[in-house]
Amino acid sequence: MLLKIHNNSTNYKMYILLFIISFFLFSPKIYSISLTTCNTLSSSGETYILQNDINKPGGTCINITANNITLDCNNHKIIKIQILV
User: Is the pTM for the entire model greater than 0.85?
Assistant: First the structure.
């Protein structure tokens, strides 16, 4: 039995409140921002997940402008292509 319910409604409410608080404190983030092209990552505290390989023919591809950002490459690559003439 996961949750013992007592006749006392105050105890029941406390169990429910503790469950809700622990769910939000210990649950992983359930949303993220999909990333499919070169971009600026500017939302602090967000997780960006690369959805495909990105080929960039020079310059900056991923520009991180805020603190506490996670970039999950999701087994994809960011490739800088250099063309020699």
Answer: no
